[in-house]
Structure to design on (105 residues):
């Protein structure tokens, strides 16, 4: 079995930071938690792992523009709900991350 090298370049690291912040906002506001609940922690770990193995690496676009769906359907639904909800709050809480993400689209 051939393992793909981990992507840890600056583009992937910024994507990881952005998705982590979105999940934190979602959990804090929807689940009323200061720390991530088990479900959100699982989603965060899954998302970070998928980003680490993204086949596009540093050439990665926004996931919504990607033709390859690397998330399992259950996680895809969860991350869509997180992004839909947290996207608006990201503009207020982390405007730099939001603008960077919007420019990527």
């Amino acid at each position: 079995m051939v393992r793909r090298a981990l992507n840890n370049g600056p583009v992937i690291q910024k994507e990881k930071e952005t998705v982590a912040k979105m999940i934190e906002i979602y959990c804090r506001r929807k689940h009323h938690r200061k720390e991530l609940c088990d479900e959100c922690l699982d989603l965060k770990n899954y998302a970070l792992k998928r980003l680490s193995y993204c086949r596009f690496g540093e050439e990665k676009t926004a996931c919504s523009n990607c033709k390859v769906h690397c998330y399992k359907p259950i996680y895809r639904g969860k991350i869509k709900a997180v992004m839909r909800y947290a996207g608006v709050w990201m503009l207020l809480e982390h405007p730099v991350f939001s603008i960077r993400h919007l420019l990527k689209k």
